């Protein structure tokens, strides 16, 4: 089986940046599993499917018409690279992510990213549910304040409107929902390395992960 490094953690903990850089450094595939939940939520909104209708949302997830190419994400042929990052879509994603049938529907797609020479998978349950046999498991955390600040900077840089007060609220709400749900709650795998990045640059976090991987 190809090598897998899992990087799980709460919203805006720096998972995406770190996972992406580690994958690039090692020449591995990269799976942004959160994007799949975001795409499912966006498609449900487009199709006016109720976000609480478990079987209808799961049906969308099961045959998600998405493609990842050259850093762009296409949904139903439309470029949704920026649209999918909107905070409102993050919140919608966390609502459909509580539905077990939706999580089940996205499992095979996630597992299919495990290709030679290896994979770096970023999400909430990569080390606990999707790749329990991963070669290295990381749980990234950071204080709520550090995370809100990072997310703010990210959104503004992309020209997406944001304000700190709403971000802290969304972040806290999303953390609570992700941690409290019955299926695949956000928590470190028992064999995960915990990395608190509140006081770290992305580069330092990447170095730490590569060091663990090398040893
Ligand atoms: O970028 P951010 O960390 O804010 O969110 P994301 O990783 O894109 O994930 C969006 C939402 O999808 C999360 O709040 C989770 O509720 C859900 N998710 C999940 O349940 N399991 C995953 N493996 C990835 C995301």
Features of the shown structure:
globular, alpha/beta, three-stranded antiparallel sheet, five-stranded parallel sheet, 9 helices, single chain, Rossmann fold, 17% strand, 215 residues, 8 strands, binds cytidine-5'-diphosphate
Describe the structure.
With 215 residues, the protein is α/β, with parallel strands linked by helices. It has one domain (3-214): P-loop containing nucleotide triphosphate hydrolases (Rossmann fold), CATH 3.40.50. 49% of the residues lie in helices and 17% in strands. The chain has helices at 15-26, 33-46, 54-62, 87-96, 100-111, 126-130, 144-157, 164-180, 202-214; strands spanning 3-8, 29-32, 66-69, 72-75, 78-79, 118-123, 136-141, 193-196. Strands 2-6-1-7-8 form a five-stranded parallel sheet. Strands 3-4-5 form a three-stranded antiparallel sheet, with no helix packed on it. Helix 2 (33-46) crosses helix 4, helix 3 (54-62) packs parallel to helix 5 and helix 4 packs parallel to helix 8 (164-180). The protein is globular, with a radius of gyration of 16 Å. Bound molecules: cytidine-5'-diphosphate. Residues 11-12, 16, 33-34, 37-38, 90, 93-94, 97, 123-125, 174, 178 line the site of cytidine-5'-diphosphate.
Bound molecules: cytidine-5'-diphosphate
User: Structural class, judged by helices and strands?
Assistant: alpha/beta
The helix tally amounts to 9
Q: Which sequence of strands runs across the widest sheet?
A: 2-6-1-7-8
What's the average pLDDT? 94
CATH class: Alpha Beta
CATH superfamily: P-loop containing nucleotide triphosphate hydrolases
CATH architecture: 3-Layer(aba) Sandwich
Helical coverage, percent range: 40-55%
Main beta-sheet strand count, sense and barrel state: 5 strands, parallel
Percentage of β-strand residues: 15-25%
The shape, in one word, is globular
Radius of gyration using CA atoms only: 16 Å
């Amino acid at each position: 089986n190809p090598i897998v490094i899992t990087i799980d953690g709460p919203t805006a903990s720096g998972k995406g940046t770190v996972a992406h850089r580690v994958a690039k450094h090692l020449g591995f595939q990269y799976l942004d599993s959160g994007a799949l939940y975001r795409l499912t939520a966006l498609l449900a909104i487009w199709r006016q499917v109720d976000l609480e209708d478990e079987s209808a949302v799961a049906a969308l997830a099961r045959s998600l018409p998405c493609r990842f190419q050259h850093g762009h994400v296409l949904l139903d042929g439309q470029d949704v690279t920026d649209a999918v990052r909107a905070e409102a879509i993050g919140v919608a994603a966390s609502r459909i992510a509580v539905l077990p049938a939706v999580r089940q529907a996205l499992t095979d797609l996630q597992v299919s990213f495990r290709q030679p020479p290896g994979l770096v998978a970023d999400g909430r349950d990569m080390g606990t549910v999707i790749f329990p046999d991963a070669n290295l498991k990381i749980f990234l955390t950071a204080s709520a304040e550090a995370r809100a600040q990072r997310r703010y900077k990210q959104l503004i840089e992309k020209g997406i409107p944001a304000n700190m007060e709403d971000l802290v609220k969304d972040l806290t709400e999303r953390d609570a929902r992700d941690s409290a749900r019955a299926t695949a709650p956000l928590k470190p795998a028992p064999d995960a390395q915990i990395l608190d990045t509140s006081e770290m640059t992305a580069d330092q976090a990447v170095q730490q992960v590569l060091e663990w991987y090398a040893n």
